[in-house]
Amino acid sequence: MPILKKGVGCPYCGSSCDDLEVLVSDDETKVLEVHNACIIGTNLFHHANDPTRPKLPRKRQPDGTMKEIPYEEAIDYMAKTMLAAKKPLVYGFGSTNCEGMSAVARIAEKAGAVLDNCATICHGPSFLAIFDNGYPSCTLGEAKNRADVVVFWGCNPMHAHPRHTSRYSIFPRGYFTQKGAMQRTVLSIDPRETDTAKLADIHLMLDQGHDYELFDAFRTVLRGFDIPEVVAGIKKETIKKSVEIMKNARFCMIFFGMGCTHTDGRNHNIDHAISLTRDLNEHTKCSIMAMRGHYNIAGPGQVWAWQFGFPYCIDLSKGTHAHMNPGETSSVDLAMRDEVDCFVNVGADAGAHFPIQPVQHLKKHPFITIDPNFNMASEISDLHIPVRIAGVDEPGVVYRMDNVPIQFKAVLKGLPGVPSDEELFNLVYERMCELTQTKPIWLAAKEDRRYPESEAVN
Amino acid sequence: MTSGEIIVKGGFIIDPTRKIDGDVGDVAIKDGKIVDKVSSSAKVIDAKGKVVMAGGVDVHSHVAGPKVNAGRLMRPEDKLRAGACMSAMAQKNGYRMESGFSIPSVFKTGYDYARMGYSFVMEAAMPPLLAPHTHEEIHDTPIIDEAALPVFGNNWFVMEYLKKGEVENTAAYIAWLLKVTKGYGIKVVNPGGTAAWAWGLNCLSLNDQVPYFEITPGEIIKGLMEANEFLGLPHSIHVHQNNLGNPGNYPDTLESLKIAEGVKAKNKFGRETVLHSTHLQFHSYGGEGWKDFCSKSKEVMDYVNKQKNLTFDLGCVTLDETTTMTADGPFEHHLHGLNHLKWTNVDVELETAAGIVPYIYDKDVLPNAIQWATGLELALFAKDMDRAFITTDHPNAGPFTRYPRVIKWLMSKKAREAVLATMKNSDKVINATYIHGIDRELTLYEIAQMTRSGPAQCLGLAKTYGSLAPGNNGDVSVFDLNYKNMPSDPEKIETALLRAAYFIKDGEVVVKDGEVASHGHKKTVWVKVKMPENAQVTRDVSQAFHKGTYTVDISNYPVREYLAPHQSIIDINVEA
Amino acid sequence: MAKIQLNMITQRSIEEGAAMEQGKTNPNYFIACSICEMNPEDMKRAGIMKNTNIRITSECGTVIVKAIEPTQYCPPGLAHIRQGVWANQVVPPRTQSTGTPQYSGFPVTIEPAPEEKLKTALNLVQGAVGLWKGGNS
Question: ipTM value of the model?
Fold first, then answer.
C-alpha cells in the first residue's frame, strides 16, 4: 500500500511550504505523487526517483573521464586536499539542512577555509544593508494575517516563489484579512511587466537600475517634500499616489528581491528600502522582508552567525578568529583575484550560477562538488560526492525566508550507502583529525554520533 | 558525568544553603554528584587558600535563540571589539573559535560562563514558533546546562482564555506548549504591549486595553500567575513589566508587583515565591522626563523588602557598548528613536515580537550614569539576599562577562566611588541617586546567595544547583581569593571571579587556571507537565494551524527529540 | 547586419526553475534557458526574426541564444536572459566590492546570428574550462 506523508516541506524556494503531501511506494523508495506543491517542487520530488542518480563518488581521471570510487577514498581525498590548500573555499548551502551546515563549519575551521554561501551572489547586499541599517521585519504569518498593502519591489514571486502569493502575500484569507485579495492593495515596482506586476493594482515600471532614486523619491514625498516631475521613469503623481497608499495602510508589507540586490547600487538600494520602512513606521505599521531564494539559504546565515558571528564570507584561514569582509572574502571576488587554491561546492551549482570567469579561475585548482544530483559543477569537478537530498531522503532543520525554523521530514529512505551531508562532513572531519593527529571536538549534539557507520562507508 | 572521584581539599567553603561561611573544608564528588566522602584514590584538587562555591546559576540571560542571533548577524562590529576577550590559548588547545563581545558566539558563551564557574543559565525568552532555533543554539553551547522560558504574555491563546477568565484552559495550553517547545516556565514580557505592537501600538500601563483582544496587562499577569500555581511549576512567573526604561515608571512597577500580594506559592519544589521581577533596574525610575530622571531604587526596595513572595534580578548597567534585545518590541523602536542606531524587529505570528538596537552606556551621559547607580542600589538596599539575584539582563545592560565587575562594585565602596569620580556629571548623579550615601559592602557569602542558592531556589532547582550539599550536581567553582586575607585592591576580586582556578561540572574538571579543559556534558533542562486531556484547548490549537493562522504545519511545530540531545526533564503531574 | 546596444537583466523564471529541477542536462532546461527575451521593436531595429539565433556580447563574454518575444513584457531597451548557464556566459563578474556580480543591468551588444548553433549547457561550461570532449549532450 502506498504511504501518504503529510506536512512535508518542499526543498526548493524560500517559501519553504510545509503543507505538501507526498505519496510514496510502500517500501519508501519511490515518490509516486506530490500534492499541493508548485511545478518546481513537484519536479524536484519526482527527480529523486531518477535511476541515474549517482550512488558513488566519481573522481576525474587523467584522461578527463570520471570513474566511480568508494566513499572512503573520496573522503580521504577531500580531507587531504582541503588540509593541503592554503586557503580553500567552501561555498553553497542553498540546498542542504542546518545539521550539514554545522558539520561543515567544523571542517572549515580545521582546514582554515573561507566559508561562504549562496547569499554572496544573491541577498549578500541585503546583509550589507542590515549591518548598517537594521531590519524591521516579521514572520510570514504576520504578513498574511495583517497586511492590507503589499509592495513587491524588484521581485517576481509568481516565478521565483510560485506559491508565495497564495500562501502568504496576495490571496490568502488571514485572521485579520478574511477578504483575502479583495482587501489587499498590491504595488509592484519592476522594469518589466512581470506576471507579478500583472496582479498589482499599481505597477511602477521604472527605468531598470534606478531603484535607488525611486526609494529616495518615496521617502522625500513621505516626509512632505517636493520631487521632480519624473523620477526613475515614474511620474510624480504615481509616486505620490503610491506613497499615500502605503502611508494609509493598516499594515504595509514590503517584499524585495534581486531587482534591488543584483543591480547598480546593490546594498545601497536595500539600505534605502529599510530606511523607507522605518520612515513609514512613523505613520503606520510597516515591515520589510527579503525574498530569500532557496528553502534553506537563511540556514547558513543563522548557523554560522551563532557559531562564528557572521552570516557569510567567513574567512577562517587566520586560525585565531573569524574575519568577514564582503568584497574581500566573498567567493566571486576571491576567485577573480586567484586568492583561493581549492574549491568545494556544496548543495549549489557554482558551475551554472557563477558568471563563467570566476569558474575558470576556480578550475585552476582542485574542485570538489558535493550534491545529490549531476549538475554543471559536478561535471567539471575533480571529485563529485553524492549525498542524500535534504527534504526528500534526509530530514533536518530548515530556515524559511522569514527565519522561522521548520523541521523538514524525509519522505524516502535514502539511497543505500549514500550519506547525508552531515554524515559526510563528520567523516571528513574525523579523517582530518587522523591526518593531523588531533582529537575531534564533538559538542553535545554530536557526542553519540548516532548514525549508521557501515551504510555510509563502502 | 564521570564516575571518577574528586576531592576539593582545604578551601574556604561558602555555601549559603548549609549556612557555611568560609569554613575550611573539603567537597567530595562521586559519579557526578556531591557526596559526603570519597575513597583515598580520589583525584585531589588543592583549594588551599581559595574560595570554594557551588556552580553559578544565572536566572536571566539572552544567550540562545532567534533574537540573539539576529543581534549577532546585524552587528559584525561586535566581533571586532572582542579582540581582548578571545583566548588564543583555548584555540591552541583545540577548542572552537570564539567571537563576539556583547553577543558572543555559542562557543564563547559556553566557555566564558564556564571560566566564571557558572553551571546553569536560563535563556530568558524563547518564542514558541521559533523554539527549534533556540534548541539548536543550546545544543551547540558547550559545558553549561541551559533551560529556556517560552514567552506567554502576548500569546493569542493566553489572551483569549484569560479574557474569559478560563484559568484551567490557560494552564492546559501552557502545559502543552512547555512540552512541545521543551520549555521551563512562564515568561511574561511587556504583557499585552507586544501584541499591540503588531499594529504599531503599545500598552504602557496595567490598565491599557490590548487592541482586538481587549484584555489588560494587569489581567494577563494575574491570570498567568494563577495558571502557574495551578500547574505547580518549579519557577514562578518571570515578569518584564510594562513601561520599561521610561522616566517615572516606578509606580507602574509597584502596581505590577502588587498583583502578587496575598498569593501563595503551590508546588512541590520548595519554591515560596510567586513572581520574579526581572531586570528591576530598568523599572525603578523617577522623574517626569530625562531632565529630572532619577533613581527610585529605595522606594521600590521598601516595597520588595516587605513582600516575602517576590524575587527579582538586578539588570545592572555596566557602562559598556552593548546590544539591547528584548521581546518588548515597542520599547526597542522607541530606543532607536532616542539613539538613532540601527534597529531590527521581528514580529512573530500569534505569539510575540523582538527588537534589537545597539546601545552605548556612557558614564558621562547623565541618565546612563543614573542607571548604573540604580542597579547597584537595588542590591545594596535589599534585606533578603536570597531573593535578589545578580544579572545584567545580558546583553541589554551589559555582557555577562561583567558579572565579576558588578560583584566588585557591590563588594567595594571604594570601587563604586572610583567610578563616580570619573563621571563628568558626578554631582548631578549623586543628586539623582542614593549610591554615594550607601556605605554597605556585600560579603562573598551574600554574593553566593545572589548567584547560587537564591536563583536555584526560585527556579525550583535547589536540590540540583546552587548548593554544595550532598545530592546536588557535582558543580564546584574554586576562585583564587583568600577569604581570610581578601585583596585590598577591588580589581583583584574582579579578575579572580572572571577566571576560576577550577570549575568542576558534573564531576568533571572543565576549567583549570581560568582556561577551558574539556567540553563537558551539557544538559537541556525542561519541565514536562502531565495533565488530563483538555479537548477545548486541543481543538483551539488545531484550528489555529488548520485554518492557516499559523503558517507552518502542526506536525512541524513541536521540537523534535534529537534537537535536545541530553535532556534533564522535571516531571509534574497535575490532577484534574 | 545591424548591431544594437541593450541593457541586459538575468532573473529567475518558473520555466527555468521547473526545468532545472529535472536536471540541467535535461532538454527542458536547454529550451527554457538558452533564450533571450527582447521587445519586438528592438528585434526589428537589429533585423532579428523571432525564434532565430542571436549573438550577445558583453564586456566579458559572448553567447549564442535564441531570440524570442517576451513571455513577460520587456520595454524597448531592456533584454532578459533567464538566469542559468547561457546568461552566465555574459554576466560581468564585477561586484562593486559587495561580492555580488552584476547579474542585472549591464550593457550588451546584440546582433542576428541565424546561422550560428546553440551550444548545450555542458558544452558551454565544460568548454570554458577545457573539459569538453564533444558530443550531443
Answer: 0.96
Distance (Å, rounded) from C-alpha A392 to C-alpha B197?
38
Q: Which of B197, B14, B138, B423 is nearest to A146 (CA)?
A: B197
Give the number of A-C residue pairs with CB atoms closer than 8 Å: 183
Residues of C in contact with A379 (CB under 8 A): 122, 125-126, 131
| Beta strands B508-512; B515-516: pairing state | antiparallel
Of A127, A287, A307, the CB nearest to B105: A307
Chain A neighbors of B563, CB-CB under 8 A = 397, 407
The answer to whether A406 and A397 have CB atoms below 8 angstroms apart is yes
Which residues, at least 6 apart from A205, have a Cβ–Cβ distance to it below 8 Å? A190, A191, A192, A193, A197, A233, A234, C75
Closest CA to B116 of B480, B401, B498, B519: B498
Is B348 an 8 Å CB contact of chain A? yes
| pLDDT digit string, tens, across residues A12-57 | 999 999 999 999 999 999 999 999 999 999 999 999 999 999 999 9
Position of cell 534537537?
Answer: B563
Give me B498's grid cell: 572572571
| CA–CA min distance B502, chain A (Å) | 21
Q: How far apart are CA B532 and CA A250, in angstroms?
A: 41
Residues 499-528 of B with CB under 8 A from A: 519, 521-522
Q: Taking Cα atoms as reference points, which of C84, C89, C79, C71 lies closest to residue C29?
A: C84
A181 and A145 Cβ atoms separated by less than 8 Å: no
Provide φ and ψ at B265, rounded to 5°.
Answer: -75, 140
pTM above 0.95, yes or no: yes
Digit-coded pLDDT (tens) for A75-87: 999 999 999 999 9
Query: Please, which residues 99-158 of chain B have a Cβ atom closer than 8 Å to chain A?
Result: 99-100, 103, 105-107, 129-130, 132-133, 136-137, 139-140, 142
> Measured between alpha carbons, how far is C106 from C43 in angstroms, rounded to an integer?
18
Amino acid identity of residue C133, one-letter, is K
Q: Identify which of A40, A259, A379 has the shortest CB distance to residue C17.
A: A40
Alpha-carbon distance A59 to nearest alpha carbon in chain C (angstroms): 14
| Three-state secondary structure call for residue B92 | helix
